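Figure 2 data, in text form.
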Amino acid sequence: MPNGDGFRVISAVRQRDRTPIIVLSVLGGESDKVRALDLGADDYVTKPFSVAELLARVRTQLRRAAPQSGVLEFDDLTIDVERRRVRQAEREVHLTPTELAILELLARNAGKPVSSREIARRVWESGEATPDTVRVHVGSLRRKIEPDPSVPRYIVTEPWVGYRFIAEPK
């Protein structure tokens, strides 16, 4: 942006809305990409790029932004967000509101790593939760939903990033 800071724009939009953000930039360095994605950008495309690629990325973000079902189903895990009910195999799992919010965020982003910073920003209204706070809540969540928390089937740690929900949707 010739007269502004794109990172500030990303932060400002994320404080108000979940509108998809695709960064188009000539800056292709890893640190610029990581910073933009950690601030809340949904995708990062470096110039030059083809119009076909850009349109495909826009379609992807529009699909993700579409209204989502209140029930998420994976192997033997069902998350009914609207009713606040979680079932693992045949047992009901009782989660705190924070644990449910973390589980929903990770499940809606299945297969993609979600940074600890993004979890803090989206789950805690202040966005000021520390990585240790996130780690403690994810540990508690794992103990409740994982058949064997030492060998996760649902939530794995992404070293130096955050967490990834690995179960395949039904």
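Caption note: The chain is about 40% helix and 20% strand.
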